[in-house]
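ok posting inputs for the nicotinamide-adenine-dinucleotide job
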Amino acid sequence: MSHAILLLPGDGIGPEVVGQARRVLQAAGEKYGFQIAFTEGDIGGVAIERQGNPYPDSTRHLASEADAILLGAVGGPQWDGLPAAQRPERGLLAIRADMDLFCNLRPALLYRQLADASSLKPELVADLDLLIVRELTGGVYFGEPRGIRELENGERQGFNTDIYSESEIRRIAHLGFQFARKRNKRLCSVDKANVLEVTMLWRDIVSEVASDYPDVELSHIYVDNAAMQLVRAPKQFDVMLTGNLFGDILSDTAAMLTGSIGMLPSASMNAEARGLYEPVHGSAPDIAGQGKANPVATILSAAMLLRYSLNEDRAAAAIEAAVQTILDQGLRTLDIATDDEVAVSTETMGNAVVNALLNNE
Ligand code: NAD
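and the output
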């Protein structure tokens, strides 16, 4: 069995963290009996420098041939002066649109060993394991009409349109139920159905889709209450299903519950489960090239890639267990080390995951 994985290291710490994730993927293949054919392409700032475009045709072609994609990060201060349409971040938007990646997965997982890093009390967040399933290509971020217009009295008025069709809601709802089925079988759908018609339809369609998944317990929550519950008692949630806007905000809130951006993976996928996997963090220009970056978010993104796009569930679980092992061993990069702990390098952290993966039962 051979899988084709496209690596897009990107900018800043991207190449450092993707380099470690690649070694972990290779080791997982050796242990679990599958081969990986890696290709590598440019995206973001490095693509602008080398090919004059943040998402060049060469990368688009490589993406179309890959089973899944692992991305580092894009962006950096040297490109901040460019017009919006030419900036590195455009590369990310372009590849998401190109592949129709409508489903964004943001797990918020807090390892017991790092519970002190959260801004919440350790007992509220220890062993937190929550998955936010966010619709990524619809809703108010893309709805038309939109703009800023001038009224007859000379005042300017800004406007956007929050819009979802039944089919857009249905396809993300199905994925939400399917992910809940793979976990603790509880799905909580977030809306504002007491005020917004678009989310009244959201609630209707999600309830309708629920009949296909009788083994999954469905609940509905208003977004304001969801925000409160996330910081009050986040462990009550298993899978949260949201539209684009609410998901953007709630997934960042959930991320902060874990206290450490260097540990958080994410995935965006399309209807064929082809996906783009990337750490939640950015290119961290302040520590780029210094061997200080935590590679775990990217390594856990690689685990998600194995599980969701390649169906290599055992290898994915083994990588996640290896991360547990190295945290138990006390390995910490700068971002997760407390004052009395010695921080190890990106490479040492990557080596430790590879060793734990190969040596764990
Ligand atoms: P950032 O996530 O890059 O960095 C925020 C802080 O967290 C920095 O202090 C950084 O050193 C630290 N940090 C981030 N990842 C880390 C890791 N793996 N290990 C240790 N420490 C880590 O966010 P920013 O500083 O706001 O943005 C920097 C650049 O990244 C900008 O150009 C921004 O546009 C871009 N960005 C890209 C993405 C993406 O590619 N998906 C996401 C966010 C930001």
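notes: DSSP finds twelve helices and twelve strands in the chain. The longest strand covers residues 2-10.
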